[in-house]
């Protein structure tokens, strides 16, 4: 880990389209690597991690996994991709104060460029989750409500923090996929 890794956080509510956009960016721009914190947690649980139980409980309650677990998984994924070679789109993290503090405590040699905030109406996000029809254990109306509460109470203040630091870039997540993508590319030019 000689050089600095460059990281862009991508935040927004459940179902806003974080994964869709980051995946598309990664596919069409080889400079970027997409890392979904939620996906890394789901994979860790499925592959028999010692933290599997706590991960499953948090996901099924719409609460946030202890930060050490998530930061460790993100670090491992970044090392596997080549620490300083790429720009990492870290999707769905940091979600709360614990995530934020532990990231900056544990991730030396990282430059956080800025945070992209995908802003969207809650009804649109609920519709998108419904339409996704996934097999995810948290994709049901009951857990969706809890995810929204966690997002409003714990993640919004982190988004506000990036804004106060002059490190927030907002996109209108209500628009169609291609229009959001266009806004994302405009931001990522910097
Ligand atoms: N879609 C996408 N964009 C669209 C658009 N512009 N117009 C119309 N439709 C659009 O998209 C959702 C659906 O909408 C798809 O069908 C897509 O085609 C369509 P997607 O890109 O999957 O949205 P995304 O924002 O990624 O939704 P996701 O459900 O993944 O968001 P969450 O933030 O809820 O889920 P995540 O996987 O990040 O986290 C799950 C849980 O893991 C959390 O609740 C928490 O318990 C835990 N977690 C942590 O504890 N810590 C972490 O750091 C991360 C996760
Ligand atoms: Mg996602």
* Structural class by secondary-structure content: alpha/beta
Shape: globular
Mean pLDDT: 96
Beta strand %: 15-25%
Number of strands: 5
Counted by DSSP, the helix tally is 8
First-to-last CA distance: 24 Å
Overall radius of gyration: 16 Å
User: Main β-sheet: number of strands, strand sense, barrel status?
Assistant: 5 strands, parallel
Describe this entry's structure for a reader:
By secondary structure, the chain is an alpha/beta fold. 54% of the residues lie in helices and 17% in strands. The chain has eight helices and five strands, in the order E-H-E-H-H-H-E-H-E-H-H-E-H. It has helices spanning 18-28, 37-46, 52-61, 67-81, 97-106, 122-132, 141-164, 177-188, and strands spanning 5-12, 32-36, 87-91, 110-119, 168-172. A five-stranded parallel β-sheet has the order 2-3-1-4-5, with helices on both faces. Helix 2 crosses helix 4 (67-81). It is globular and about 45 Å long. The chain binds P1-(adenosine-5'-P5-(uridine-5')pentaphosphate (UP5) and magnesium ion (MG). The site of magnesium ion has 5 residues, from helix 1.
Q: TL;DR of this structure?
A:
This protein is of the alpha/beta class. 54% of the residues lie in helices and 17% in strands. A 5-stranded parallel beta sheet has the order 2-3-1-4-5, with helices on both faces.
List keywords for this structure.
190 residues, alpha/beta, five-stranded parallel beta sheet, 54% helix, binds P1-(adenosine-5'-P5-(uridine-5')pentaphosphate, binds magnesium ion
């Amino acid at each position: 880990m000689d050089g600095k890794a460059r990281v862009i956080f991508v935040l927004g509510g459940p179902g806003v389209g974080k994964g869709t956009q980051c995946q598309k960016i990664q596919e069409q721009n080889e400079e970027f690597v997409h890392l979904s914190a939620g996906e890394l947690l789901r994979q860790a649980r499925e592959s028999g991690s010692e933290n599997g139980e706590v991960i499953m409980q948090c996901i099924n309650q719409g609460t946030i996994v202890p930060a050490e677990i998530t930061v460790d998984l993100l670090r491992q994924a970044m090392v596997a991709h080549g620490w300083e070679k790429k720009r990492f789109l870290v999707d769905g993290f940091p979600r709360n104060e614990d995530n934020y503090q532990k990231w900056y405590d544990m991730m030396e040699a990282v430059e956080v460029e800025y945070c992209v905030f995908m802003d969207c109406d809650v009804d649109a996000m609920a519709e998108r989750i419904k339409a996704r029809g996934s097999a995810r254990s948290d994709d049901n109306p009951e857990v969706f409500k809890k995810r929204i509460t966690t997002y409003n109470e714990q993640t919004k203040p982190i988004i506000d923090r990036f804004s106060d630091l002059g490190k927030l870039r907002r996109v209108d997540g209500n628009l169609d996929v291609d229009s959001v993508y266009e806004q994302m590319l405009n931001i990522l030019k910097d």
